[in-house]
Amino acid sequence: MSKVETFKMNFEERDKEQIKDEEVLTASLDKPALFKILVDRYQEAFTRKAMGILRQQEEAEDIVQETFVKIYWNAKKFKKIEGIEFKSWAYKILVNTAISRYRKISKKWQAESLDPLDLEMASEKNLSTENIVLESENKSAAAELISRIPKPLARLVSLYYIEDKSYKQIAEKESLTIPALKMKLFRAKKILRDLYKKSDDNNNKI
Fold first, then answer.
1. DSSP labels for 76-122?
2. I need a labelling partner for 6 at 20 to 30 A (CA). Which of 16, 61, 84, 139 fits?
3. Angle CA 188–172–185, to nearest 5
4. Collapsing DSSP states into helix, strand and coil, what is residue 166?
5. Is 153 or 3 the better-scoring residue by pLDDT?
6. Helix runs in the chain, H state only
7. Per-residue pLDDT for 130 more than 70?
8. How many Å apart are CA 170 and CA 157, to the nearest integer?
9. Which pLDDT tens digit goes with each residue over 29-86?
């Protein structure tokens, strides 16, 4: 009896939480329906991660689906990689796919944008969300930095980066025009960049 047949026979009797990702992936090559276990395990977390990069729900969902397809079609390659867990391998595929899409969207956005401020913000690589707030993936650390900037700006930054509110939602909540909001966020990010740089320099001296 093959490994896959044994797996299928014992599957219903086993606790799904106890079945390793790698085992499910291997079995799914002969029994594609089993791949749904991995989809159920990772879809929500993958979507959150993709949203952190793309900041667009529809794009994030598309990237997650594309990632699962890549994972399945490259499953045999994974079997040849010793010492690497499925989770880290899968997240690498997700992040690379999301970043690739983000770059395409950014180029198109910059080419089509008629807002000089948008173009200026896009050209400031050091003021990107990743470099200022999301780089550490530690929102408590980001919140600490935000608390050190003027309160009116801190509130806007928290709403946009920590609570993931859209420009439209924040503008309506704070009674601002979207151009005014973008200008305030741009100014806040300059302050955050300096604070982040100083913090990083201090850590390197320790």
1. HHHHT-TT--HHHHHHHHHHHHHHHHHHHHHHHHHHH---HHHHHHH
2. 84
3. 10
4. coil
5. 153
6. 3-11, 21-28, 35-54, 57-73, 75-79, 86-112, 116-123, 129, 139-146, 151-157, 167-174, 178-205
7. no
8. 10
9. 888 988 999 999 999 999 999 998 888 888 899 999 999 999 999 988 886 566 678 8
